[in-house]
Write a structure and sequence with these properties.
- With 427 residues, this protein is an alpha+beta fold.
- It folds into three domains: 24-110, no CATH class; 113-226 and 323-379, no CATH class; 234-317, no CATH class.
- Helices cover 22% and strands 29% of the residues.
- It is built from eleven helices and 25 strands.
- The chain has helices at 111-122, 129-144, 172-180, 208-212, 240-249, 287-296, 328-336, 341-348, 375-381, 391-395, 407-411, and strands at 24-32, 35-39, 50-57, 60-63, 66-67, 72-75, 83-85, 88-90, 93-99, 102-110, 155-156, 184-188, 191-192, 197-198, 204-205, 222-223, 234-239, 257-265, 271-278, 281-286, 304-308, 312-317, 326-327, 353-358, 368-374.
- The strands form seven sheets. It has a six-stranded antiparallel sheet with strand order 5-4-3-2-7-8, with no helix packed on it. A five-stranded mixed sheet has the order 6-9-10-1-11. Strands 13-12-24-25 form a four-stranded antiparallel sheet.
- Strand 9 and strand 10 (102-110) form a beta hairpin.
- Helix 1 packs across helix 3.
- Residues 1-22 form the signal peptide.
């Protein structure tokens, strides 16, 4: 088949096993019936771009309406340049796949470049740098743990994974946090750790056992006094009729409710079981059903107290999210008190370690771990195993990658409102 003249610019091939280099991640950034891809200029002086209109016909991709004969097209990275896909700019390269009658766009990018678009989307970059650096380390760990050469892509770009905003989200302060923690990840037992996090623990972190029935030693229930909503509870009032409608969606049809109480709570004070009483009897909601019922009523977390009267149910609670692992607001509070990024991680993942992420070996696909230190030891020493730059390198950072800010400038940066917080994919 004769291909359009422009097509050779795209090095297309049927999808083969991608590079297993640990520094590369593949993120699903768009999925639709057709996609428009622009190659952005590689220098500030250039204004030319090339637009590619990609669709699907007969299970094969089309380019500008012409058949390519392939299910997969690949556009390699353009050094110093970016790509625009569905109106958003990204670094790195692109893989386009025909999936059914639609097109998937997968950004293939170095993990450190990927984090530049993730960290400021998950935590305000003007927060204390220790907290932002901790977020960079756990975001890197989360991404690296999901690299799977056998899958078509490793991550999505939404709250189902980690929010990835591409170039538009990048910020000099979060760039600096990513660079200063380069290659650092949290590990346990020689493997990448499960670095779950939530917006706010509500004053007491939840264990993985109480949340999901998985006993992970470094995900413990423990007091977290730096999380602010422990002192500032939220209150939600839901009309009795609404409560009964929501209960019916969870299989509870008892007529008019006369009582609703927490019959079992976890160590961290989160609801594990609810007892509902109505005209037709009583019923218990437990586990995920109890949590889902509360979230459907607007609860920000399951760390909540209930009070039912003849007209409404009042929910008084603290925290936001599941509460397992790092609490972002708690990390902010600890960082403001002078704690380092490694001290934050040691607090929220006690017993875990910090390791250097290295390239995969041919006989061991997927990310590999290099030098490792217990987080407790690294926090005491004030640095992790990856921070081995010479004094000259530390005093002269790359100005293009880690902009310097004077103490005066940092002191006068005001914190913005809290950005939307996302949760890991498998919560």
């Amino acid at each position: 088949m004769r291909l359009p003249p422009a097509l050779p610019i795209l090095a297309f091939a049927l999808l083969a096993a991608p590079s297993a280099a640990a520094q590369n991640v593949r993120i699903l950034i768009a999925s639709s019936a057709a996609l428009s891809v622009n190659t952005a200029p590689s220098t500030a002086l250039s204004t030319s771009t090339t637009r590619w209109n990609i669709g699907v016909r007969g299970g094969k991709l089309t380019l500008g309406g012409q058949d390519t004969g392939s299910e997969v097209l690949s556009l390699p990275p353009n050094a110093g340049g970016t790509l625009e896909v569905a109106g958003h700019r990204y670094r790195g390269g692109l893989t386009v796949r025909a999936v059914g009658s639609g097109v998937q766009a997968i950004n293939v990018v170095d993990i450190e470049e990927y984090l530049r678009g993730v960290v400021p989307a998950e935590m305000p970059p003007l927060w204390p740098q220790a907290a932002v650096r901790a977020q960079a380390i756990i975001a890197r760990t989360y991404a690296a743990a999901r690299i799977n050469p056998a899958a078509p892509y490793d991550l999505c770009s939404t709250t189902q994974c980690q929010v990835y905003g591409g170039v538009a989200k990048e910020h000099p302060l979060s760039d600096a946090a990513v660079l200063s923690t380069r290659a650092e990840v949290v590990s346990s037992g020689g493997k990448l750790a499960d670095t779950y996090f939530s917006a706010d623990s509500g004053g007491y972190t939840a264990s993985s056992l109480e949340a999901w029935g998985r006993d992970i030693s470094y995900l413990r229930a423990q007091p977290d006094p730096a999380s602010p909503s422990a002192q500032k509870p939220w209150v939600i009032v839901s009309a009795l009729g609404t409560v009964q409608e929501v209960a019916a969606r969870y299989g509870v049809r008892l007529g008019k409710l006369s009582a609703l109480s927490v019959s079992k709570a976890s160590t961290s004070g989160r609801v594990m079981e609810l007892n509902l009483v109505g005209e037709l009897g009583s019923k218990t909601l437990a586990g995920a059903n109890a949590g889902g019922f509360l979230r459907s009523l607007g609860a920000k977390s399951s760390k909540v107290r209930l009070s039912l009267d003849s007209a409404a149910l009042t929910l008084t609670g603290s925290g936001s999210g599941h509460g397992v692992g790092l609490s972002q607001w708690g990390a902010r509070g600890m960082a403001q008190s002078g704690k380092s990024d490694l001290a934050l991680l040691d607090f929220y993942y006690p017993g875990a370690s910090v390791s250097v992420l290295t390239e995969s070996q041919a006989d061991a696909p997927g990310p590999q771990l290099g030098p490792t230190l217990p987080l407790s030891a690294a926090a005491r020493r004030g640095f992790g195993p990856a921070l081995t730059a010479s004094a000259a390198e530390q005093s002269n950072p790359d100005p293009l990658r880690a902009p310097a800010f004077s103490p005066f400038e940092l002191a006068n940066l005001s914190s913005p409102p809290l950005f939307p917080m996302s949760l890991p994919a498998d919560l």
